[in-house]
Design brief:
This protein is an all-beta fold and 238 residues long. It has strands spanning 4-7, 13-16, 20-24, 42-50, 55-61, 65-72, 74-79, 84-88, 91-96, 101-107, 114-121, 131-136, 146-151, 159-160, 166-172, 177-181, 187-195, 198-200, 203-205, 210-213, 218-223, 227-235. It folds into 2 domains: 13-137, Jelly Rolls, CATH 2.60.120; 140-235, Jelly Rolls, CATH 2.60.120.10.
Amino acid sequence: MDNSVLHKANTRGVANLGWLNSHHTFSFSNYYNPERMNFGVLRVLNDDIVAGGMGFGAHPHQNMEIISIPLEGDLEHQDNMGNKTVIRNGDIQVMSAGTGVEHSEKNKNNNSQVKFLQIWIIPNQQNVKPRYDQITLNTEDRKNKLQQIISPNPEDEGVWIHQDAWFHLGNFDAGTNAKYQLKKKGNGLYAFILKGDLLINGQELNTRDGFGIWNFETLDIKANSDAEFLLMEVPMEL
C-alpha cells in the first residue's frame, strides 16, 4: 500500500541502560533514523521498561503534549506544578508542557519493573499554560470494542490534548471485528500492537509492530488472536 508505513517490532531503536530498556519507534535520544522522525504530529512512541526503584529524574519539556500509558507496575509522577501521583495500568496521564514544565517519573516499587508507553504529540498551539491531568479508565469498556482515551475535547471520553487527535484502546478476543471511522478529514492513523496478531485493512500485524495509514476513511480491524492495541489518529500536517 502506498498510503501506509509498516514498522516491525524488531526494527525499532533500542536503548538499554540497565535501569531502563526502551524501544523507540521514532528517532529519539541516541537513536536517529531520518526515515523515522515522526508520523504526522506523532513525534515519539517509546516502549519503556524501568527497573525497580529507578526512573527518570527531574527534567524539562516545552511545547509538547506528553502522554503516558502504564502497562504494568506503579509509576510515580512528580512535577513543578505541585502534582505528586501514581499511575498504573488502566490510567492515562497527560501533560501539556507549553511554556515549560519539569517532571520526574519513577518506578514506585523496588522489587518489580514498571512498563509504560511514552508518547509525544506536537501541539497545535505554542506556549500554552502547562497542565497535568490523569484519569482511571474502566478497562471493560475496551473489551471487543474501541475505548476512546484521548480527544481534543475536554467534554469527551478520556483526557484531552491541544491537538486534533483521537486515541483508542482495544482488547479483542480472537475473531473479533471492528471498523474505525476517521474523525477528521486529512488525519492519518498509527496503530501500535501491544499484544497478539491483528489485521488492519489486510495488513498483518504482530506484537509491538507499528502501522501508519493515511488517505482513508474507514479501517477494517480483525483480531487473528487475542489482541491488545492502541490506535492513534493524528493530523498528518505539522
